[in-house]
Design goal:
257 residues; alpha/beta; UDP N-Acetylglucosamine Acyltransferase, domain 1; Udp N-acetylglucosamine O-acyltransferase, Domain 2; 2 domains; ten-stranded mixed β-sheet; elongated
Length: 257
Amino acid sequence: MIHPTAIISPKAELGKNVRVGPYCIIGSNVTLGDDCVLHSHVVLDGTSTFGKGNEFFPFAMIGGKTQDLKYIGEPTALEVGDHNTFRENCTVHRGTFEELPTRIGSHNLFLCYSHIAHDCQLGDHIILSNNGSLAGHCIVEDYAIVSGLAAAHQFCRIGKHSIIGGCAKVIQDVPPFMIVDGHPGATRGINMVGLQRRGFSEGTIRSIKVAYKNLFLKKDISLANGLSSLKAQAAAADPNVEHLIHFIENSQRGVTR
């Protein structure tokens, strides 16, 4: 299942039923799980570990050295889960420091030319559309969607079940369950379609609507006062609203309003 033009280090570890197409390169510290597929011209480099069932399309470069100028040459790593798809020309970089690998969960889809920089931490079921870019140290929670040509500033967090519109400029944290769009990005509303598709109950969606009104529509009050008002309401008892409150309270860069 390995094409004769592929170059694979004898130190690389390949699982069962791995398919490696023409002109692929797999480095010496790469570990590939079972059933992974490299179509052609794929480069897997560095200390990079991949779970099972990952698929790599032509000219994807995964596990490259960090571009962070603070990097001084220590061994760094990339850890990837199962059943991820890396489309054409996708790039993912290893961490900058030995103690913190770049991490990607499972069942994610990274479309053409998408970029995941050093030290990013990604969950599961995430979509990065064409040319979607994450700067270093970004955290992306489960089921988030980054639309085409959107870019997130370093150290930003992108909350679960949120969606970032095309060409958006993200310079602060994207709240869970919300739509962020614009240049710079602003919170435009609830990701209603996404929540309905993922089976959120009407009651939970109503609670998220209450939270949205308290936190993002009342322009005459501060975010801190909006949080205090929300906590006093029944909607705050919903686990998803609790997550939203916790996400905002732990923001370091501030939250997109």
